[in-house]
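Review form for a predicted model. The reviewer records the input and the model, then writes brief findings.
Reviewer: anonymous (R2)
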Amino acid sequence: MSRTVYVCCGTGCLANNSMDVYKELKNLIEKYEVDAEVKTTVKATGCNGLCEKGPLVKIQPDDICYSKVKASDAEEIVKKTLLNGEIIDRLLIFDTAKGKKVTSHKDTDFYKSQHKIALRNIGEIDPANIDDYIERGGYEALRKALSQMTPDEVISEIEKSGLRGRGGGGFPTGRKWRQCDSIESYPKYVICNGDEGDPGAFMDRSIMEGDPNTVIEGMTICAYSIKSKDGFIYIRDEYSLALKNMNAAIKQAKERGFLGKNILGSGFDFDIQIVRGGGAFVCGESTALMQSIEGNVGEPRAKYIHSVEKGLWGQPTILNNVETWANIPEIIYKGSEWFRSIGTDNSKGTKVFSLVGKVKNTGLVEIPMGTTLKELVFKIGGGIIGDKKFKAVQSGGPSGGCIPESLMHLPVDFDTLKEAGSMMGSGGIIVMDERTCMVDVARYYLQFLSEESCGKCTACREGIKRMLEILTDICNGKGTKEDLELLEDLCHTVEKASLCALGKTAPNPVLTTLKYFKDEYLSHINEKRCPAGVCANLTTFEIDEKLCKGCGICAKNCPSSAISGERGKPHHIDETKCVKCGNCVDNCKFNAIKVKKGVRA
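Model under review:
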C-alpha cells in the first residue's frame, strides 16, 4: 500500500508559504519513518483551484483535504493523520454552501459542480516530473495521432469536436487548422499564447505551472497535422514559475522522445522554443505577439491578411492560447463525440475561469459551457463576502462587459455573453457587490486600456483617452448629461475604427455600465453623489442612530479617527476628518453607516 500527500504549490499558495509546508512534511515523514508500514510520497503540485482556502494539502487514497495549512501544522498532520489515521477537524475545509466542514474536497460545492478537462491533471501531479503526466495517460494522444491517424484525420477530429479558441475570440479551432494546412508554403509555425495580461486572470498561468506537458502535447499534435517543425511558447514575463516548469517539461519531453527529431520513431520532427513576453498587454493580440517574437515592437496589424496564411515571419502560422492546447490531447484520445457531448449547441466542452472579487470562494474553476452565472457565483463561488448584496459580474478582462443581477440566469457561453454586451474573453470573472461603483469600474478599465494601448491607431489612442477624461470628470463631480451622449458616441467610434481587438472591445465596460447601471451615472451627475460611496469627491458618510448599536468597531477601523461615541450609544462621524475610505461601511455588522443622499461632500 502507498500513500501520497499533495501540497498545492501554485503561485497563490506559494505566496502563503506552501513550499515551507511541503519541505516540513517531507522532512518529518522521513524523520518519523512513516513509510515503514505505508510508503508515503510528498508531491508539490500546481494550483488546486480553491485559492481562498489555500495552502491545501490532500492525502490520497484516504481522501482527506486540509485547508489553510501552515508549516507549524505539519508535525500534527504526520503524527495524527499519517501515523494514526486521525482526522484533524480544525484543518478541514469549511464548505460555505453547506455551512459545515467536509473531509474530502470532492464533497464541496466548489468542486462538485466542475468538469475538468484542461485542468484534469493539475493538483494531481508533480509538474516537474514527466512520469506523473505519463502515468495519467499523458502523450497517449500523441502516440495515437502519430501511429493511427493521418494529419487530415487529426484536423477532422478537431473540426468535429466543435472546439473554439479559448483565448477570447472563440474562432473554431479545427477551421483554423484546416485553413493553415491548405496553404502550400513552408516552414509553418505553431504558437502558444501564454501572455495573459487581463487583471485578475490566472487560468493560463496555472496550466503552464501545473501541467506543462499537456500544452506541449497539444502543440505537437497540431504540428503533425499541419506539417510544422517549429513551435514557440510566448510566456508573460512575470510568470517565473510557469517559465521554470515549461523549460523543465520541454527538456524532459526531448529526453523521452516526445519532442525533437523522429518523435516516437514516427519520422516526424518538431521542436519548441520559449519566448518571454515584453510586458505589454497588447502583445496578447495575435499579430502583436508575432511581431514581438520576431524582435519587433509589439504592434498589431490589419487582419485582412490572416495569420494562417501569413503569420510569423510571413509564413502560415497557428496560434492558440494555453487552455485551447490543453484540450487537444483529450479530444484526440477520447474522440470528438465525447467532447461534443459536453456544453451547448454552439459552445462545446468546458471553460476555465479565474473567479475573483467579492466572492467567498475565489479560485480557479472549470465548468461545462452552459452553466449559469448564478450557479458560478452563488454555488461554486459560495456567494458574496459578508452576504452583501450582489451587483454585477465583469467577464472577459478589461475589454469585457458588466452583467447585472437581472441577467444572472444567463448561461455562460460565447454567444450569450456577447449578446449581453460582454464576452467570454480568456476567462476572468470579477464579482462585484453593492460597495462597487460602476462608473468607477468603467473608469478603472479605461485607465488600464489607455496605458496599454500601443498607440498605433488614432481611434484607440485618442478615443480611449478622451473617454477616460469624461469618466474621470463624472467621478469627480464635474460631469454633465451631455457627457453621456458624447461618451456613447465615442464608444461606437472607437469600436468601429480601431485596428485591433484591444480598441474594438475597449468600449464594452462603458457601454454595459451605461446600459445596465445608468442610474448610477445620473446620481453622479444630477445629485453629485456616488451611491456606492467610492468616489471620494461625491461621498459623505453618516451613521443611522436607529441602527447603530454603539459597538465601536467602526471607530476602531477608522484610519483618521473621524468616528467617536460612547460604547452602547450611537456614534458620529466628523466630516472634516473623514477621508472617505469606506472602512466603516465595510466593517459595520448592522448596516448602520450610509452614504448621505443629495449632499455633495
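Findings: The longest strand covers residues 350-357.
Further findings: The mean pLDDT is 94.
Recommendation: see findings above.
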